[in-house]
C-alpha cells in the first residue's frame, strides 16, 4: 500500500485534481491512473475512490493498493509504473491446447507474460505438444511483416522448464527495437534459482561458451588460448550471482542471477563452472538426494524481473513476474530461518528494488 498526504506545497495555491496529482507522482499517464481507480486500487480519505477529478485540499490522504498486486515496480526514479493483470495462473498441461497464460502487461506494442514451466516457446516439426506460439496464435497475437508473413513477436526465449517474465513484440516498431535493446543491454532480466550447495561468496562468471563436445544438448565453458582465433559457434558470456538465503537444511541456497549477455543455458552453464547446480537440472549435473529435498518436478529457475525501454514512449519499464505456485511453496516451506533481520518471510527478501540494488557493485 502506497500513501500520499497532500501538503500546501503540493497545492501551490492552485486547483489540483486527484488523477493529475497521481499522474505526476507515479510518472504515469492519466489513462493508467483512471484504470487504477476503475479497478478499485485507489482510496481517498479512507474510502474507495470512484471519481478521477476530485479536487484536493491540504491533508487529504490518498492510498494506493498496488504494492503487492501490480507485480511491477520501478527500476529507477524515471521508470514508468504500469498496471498488470492480477490473474491466477493454472498449472500448465503440455497436452492441453486451450491452456491460458498470465498476462502481466500489454499495450499496442508489447505483451509481457509469466511463462509457466514445461512450456516450449517455439514450434518444431517433431513437437506434438502445445507451444507458446500456439497460444499466441489462438489469442490473435500475430504480427504481420511488411511482406505479409506471420510472425509471433518472439524476440527472446526461456528454456522449457524455466518459468517467468517473457516479452513479446506486438508491433513492427517493437519487433525492430527490442532485439536492439537486448544487444545493447537496455533490456534484460534478473532470475531467481535454488542451487544444491551455497556459493562461497557473490560471484561473477565471465567466459567463452559453446556446445559441449560430448553432449550436444548441453553448453559448456570453452577454454581459448590468449590471442588464438575464436572458433565458430563460440561466444563470450558473463553472469553475476548474488547469495540471498540458505535453506533450513543448510545445504541448498536461493540466489539471484543477472545476465550481462544472453546465451543459451547461460545460467546453468556458469553455475556448473562453479560446481553448483539448479535443483531439478539433471542435464547439468544435479543429483537428487535427501539433502536437496529430492526435487525433480522441474528446474527451479524463474525469470523474476524484466526491464526494457518502451519502444514507443522511450520510458524505462520494469516488470515483476510473480513466482509460480510450485516454486513459491518450495521457498515458503524450506526457507524460513536464514533471513535478514528486516525480513519476516522469504517474500520480503524478494522485493524488486532490493534485488536490483544487490547487483549495483557488479559491472
From TrEMBL:
One of its GO terms (molecular function) is RNA binding. Keywords: Isomerase, RNA-binding. Pfam families: PseudoU_synth_2, S4. Coiled coil: none annotated. Residues 16-83 form the RNA-binding S4 domain. SMART domains: S4. It catalyses: a uridine in RNA = a pseudouridine in RNA. The keyword RNA-binding applies. GO terms for biological process: enzyme-directed rRNA pseudouridine synthesis. Belongs to the pseudouridine synthase RluA family. It comes from the Bacteria. The keyword RNA-binding applies. This is RNA pseudouridylate synthase.
Amino acid at each position: 500500500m502506497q500513501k500520499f498526504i497532500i501538503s500546501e506545497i503540493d497545492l501551490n495555491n492552485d486547483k489540483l485534481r486527484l488523477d493529475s496529482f497521481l499522474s505526476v507522482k507515479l510518472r504515469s499517464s492519466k489513462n493508467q491512473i483512471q484504470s487504477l481507480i476503475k479497478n478499485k486500487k485507489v482510496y481517498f480519505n479512507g474510502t474507495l475512490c470512484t471519481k478521477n477529478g476530485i479536487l484536493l485540499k491540504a491533508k487529504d490522504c490518498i492510498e494506493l493498493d498496488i504494492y503487492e498486486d501490480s507485480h511491477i515496480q520501478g527500476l529507477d526514479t524515471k521508470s514508468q509504473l504500469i498496471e498488470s493483470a492480477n490473474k491466477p495462473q493454472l498449472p500448465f498441461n503440455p497436452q492441453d491446447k486451450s491452456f491460458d497464460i498470465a498476462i502481466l502487461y500489454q499495450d499496442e506494442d508489447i505483451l509481457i507474460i509469466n511463462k509457466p514451466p514445461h512450456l516450449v516457446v517455439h514450434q518444431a516439426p517433431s513437437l506434438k505438444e502445445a507451444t507458446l506460439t500456439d497460444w499466441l496464435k489462438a489469442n490473435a497475437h500475430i504480427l504481420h511483416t511488411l511482406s505479409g508473413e506471420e510472425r509471433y513477436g518472439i524476440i527472446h526465449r526461456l528454456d522449457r522448464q524455466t518459468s517467468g517474465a517473457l516479452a513479446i513484440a506486438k508491433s513492427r516498431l517493437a519487433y525492430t527495437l527490442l532485439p536492439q535493446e537486448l544487444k545493447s543491454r537496455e533490456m534484460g532480466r534478473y532470475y531467481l534459482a535454488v542451487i544444491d550447495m551455497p556459493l562461497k561468496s557473490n560471484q561473477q562468471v565471465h567466459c567463452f561458451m559453446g556446445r559441449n563436445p560430448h553432449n550436444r544438448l548441453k553448453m559448456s565453458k570453452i577454454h581459448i588460448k590468449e590471442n588464438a582465433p575464436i572458433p565458430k559457434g563460440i561466444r563470450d558470456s558473463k553472469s553475476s550471482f548474488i547469495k540471498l538465503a540458505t535453506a533450513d537444511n543448510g545445504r541448498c541456497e536461493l540466489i539471484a542471477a543477472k545476465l550481462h549477455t544472453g546465451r543459451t543455458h547461460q545460467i546453468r552453464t556458469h553455475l556448473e563452472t562453479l560446481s553448483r547446480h539448479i535443483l531439478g537440472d539433471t542435464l547439468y549435473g544435479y543429483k537428487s538426494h535427501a539433502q536437496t529435498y529430492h526435487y525433480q518436478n522441474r528446474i527451479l529457475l524463474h525469470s523474476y524481473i524484466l526491464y526494457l525501454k518502451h519502444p514507443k514512449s522511450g520510458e524505462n519499464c520494469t516488470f515483476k513476474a510473480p513466482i509460480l505456485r510450485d516454486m513459491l511453496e518450495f521457498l515458503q516451506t524450506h526457507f524460513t530461518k536464514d533471513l535478514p533481520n528486516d525480513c519476516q518471510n522469504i517474500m520480503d527478501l524478494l522485493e524488486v528494488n532490493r534485488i536490483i540494488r544487490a547487483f549495483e557493485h557488479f559491472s
